[in-house]
Amino acid sequence: MAGMSGRAQLMWDEAVTGYDFGPDHPMDPVRLSLTRSLVSAFGLDREMDVVSAKPAGESTLRLVHREDYVAAVKAASADPGSADQGYGLGTVDDPAFAGMHEVSALIAGQSVGAAEAVWRGDALHAVNFAGGLHHAMPGGASGFCIYNDASLAIARLLELGAERVAYVDVDVHHGDGVQAAFWEDPRVLTISMHEHPRTLFPQTGWPEETGASPGAEGSAVNVALPAGTGDAGWLRAFHAVVPEVLAEFRPQVLVTQHGADTHFEDPLAHLAVSLDAQRAVQVALHELAHEHSEGRWVALGGGGYAVVDVVPRSWTHLVGIVAGREIAPESVIPEGWRQEVFARTRQLAPARMTDGRWPVGWASWEAGYDPADRLDQAVVAARKAVFPLRGLLP
């Protein structure tokens, strides 16, 4: 673990926009290119090192993924018509497309490169908003995810000598692939805050999922929120669970996943969170990295299917925080970007970097809770399941 020398890193290779499941698929890569151009419109890329890492090679992919699965992805990549659905390829969620192995390995390579830069001290913070593909399993594709770049970044950190890595996932969907990859590994703490599995894919992430026994009990934390949860509840739940568990675990590096699909405009889920609350959690995770990990922070993207109105703004805020150049919520969005949005999508772009909810208020857990409130019940369930396993009072 080297000392910090370089500036923040933005991982970017234009070719990641080739991660494209087709015109009718909700994960439209325009969300990546519009984010990159909004980052540029605010001049953030001039404040950080923009780096393109090499694709993840076979030995790196094998840190998480099975050899037969990688072979199946390569075969589907060469001949999409022959995709093996037994590996989750060629399905409605994960259609096969030519070159899918190469672009998935490229995205994974950016997250692995971000982790290497932070661990070696080339950068204090690094961000790959094309990453966060958290559903991919060791042996199969799932939920729009082919290779699990988040798991691969964590596995690379362990390979480089990290002894405690914390992963915090605030996507609306459970971070099931990352939890599965490190289920038996007490060196990795996975925390996922998501819509309740009763109402949303992947139907996992119950509070009772706390890590393998024996040996890794308490290394998985799941906060399963009721559908309809808004800003105040989302922030209350985050602050009632995440800071305490991180303080006890003392991670050497923090890896975070910032799926923007918690937003009230997102078409694929049922939370009611604003851009302003998403930004508040980004700020909080940045502060937690400095508090517990000497600032070592790898930030990733994730889901998000309001591809014009939400995703570019949310992730541009994230890049600004990583760069040490926070964008004020009331900031007016540059006109050139709004024109680009209309030209590319025929949609009207948002005018400001806020949903008008800043600053977002929430009630602290320390002030007490309501046992009849569904949000508070979700927090209690998470704390009761995992806090005692970590020596904390629920």
Automatic annotation (TrEMBL):
Residues 25-320 form the Histone deacetylase domain. Keywords: Acetoin catabolism. InterPro entries: AcuC, HDACs, His_deacetylse_dom, His_deacetylse_dom_sf, Ureohydrolase_dom_sf. SUPFAM superfamilies: Arginase/deacetylase. GO terms for molecular function: histone deacetylase activity. CDD domains: HDAC_AcuC_like. GO terms for biological process: acetoin catabolic process; epigenetic regulation of gene expression. Pathway: Ketone degradation; acetoin degradation. It comes from the Bacteria. Belongs to the histone deacetylase family. This is Acetoin utilization protein AcuC. It comes from Streptomyces capitiformicae. The lineage of its organism: Bacteria, Bacillati, Actinomycetota, Actinomycetes, Kitasatosporales.
